[in-house]
Amino acid sequence: MTKPDLRIAFAASDRPEAIAARDRLTGLYGSTEPATADVIVALGGDGFMLETLHANLQRRTPVFGMNRGSVGFLMNDYSEDGLRERLLTAGRTVIHPLQMDALTADGQARSGLAINEVSLLRQTRQSAKLRITVDDRVRLEELSCDGCLVATAAGSTAYNLSAHGPIIPLDARVLALTPISAFRPRRWRGALLPHTARVCFEVLEHDKRPVSATADSFEVREVTRVEVRERRDLALTMLFDAGRSFEERVLAEQFTS
């Protein structure tokens, strides 16, 4: 594909600097609708990058992020120069989301997709009590905690890392199962699971100890059971500047203080 043929759609978060950047870039490079674009340029922070990926799950259009937000771990540096060349030479990172299937206390079934993680969190002052099953085998009869999460490799540097979970290289084909402020068993630090694993959380004493479940930003309250699995049939593509791949960022993150 030649440079003039590259159809670009620009998307911006609601931050003023992101909106201003979108307007300037549209004036420089033109813009098309996401439905007909070859690539989407997302302007904002990591949260907006996730929103853009979610919005394009069905189209699966590659997304190139430029940081006009705060954290920007999933984003490239912002520059208005040579954008077409950057897009044409960018490296591709393919990720697979998690499927969350939750059952609520009133019998509702709710489902969501997570690019970073599925997390369970206590809703009140009472600690959560969870039974954890992996591939139909109970692995932890009772975990008393603030919560627990299952993270993808792409999400391992986000909430998972804050909860002292491991950073996972993208090609490792594993998921992180990480407790959040575990009380008992006190020394349990979580587990690395094969990416094919099916994880089931059962909420014990859910009437006394209500728990919410969240797939990225999609939240379900008062859940009684949550199942998590990877969706290999869904593939999302992020683009990164040549020489600054996502794999390199993940590796570098492990050597920062």
Order of helices and strands: EHEHEHEEEEEEEHEEEEEEEH
* Strand element count: 17
Distance between the termini: 42 Å
Major sheet size, sense and barrel closure: 6 strands, antiparallel
Q: Work out the oligomeric state of the chains in this entry.
A: single chain
Low-pLDDT stretches are none
Q: Beta-strand level of the residues, as a percent range?
A: 35-45%
Helix tally? 5
**Order of strands, widest sheet:** 6-5-16-13-8-9
Compute the gyration radius: what is it?
A: 20 Å
Helix content: 10-25%
The best one-word shape is elongated
Report the mean per-residue pLDDT as an integer: 93
Main structural class: alpha+beta
Structural descriptors:
257 residues, alpha+beta, six-stranded antiparallel beta sheet
Question: Can you offer a commentary on this structure?
Answer:
This protein is an alpha+beta fold and 257 residues long. The chain contains 5 helices and 17 strands. It has a 6-stranded antiparallel sheet, with no helix packed on it. Strands 12-11-10-7-14-15 form a 6-stranded antiparallel sheet, with no helix packed on it. A 5-stranded mixed sheet has the order 1-2-3-17-4, with helices on both faces. The chain is elongated, with a radius of gyration of 20 Å. The mean pLDDT is 93.
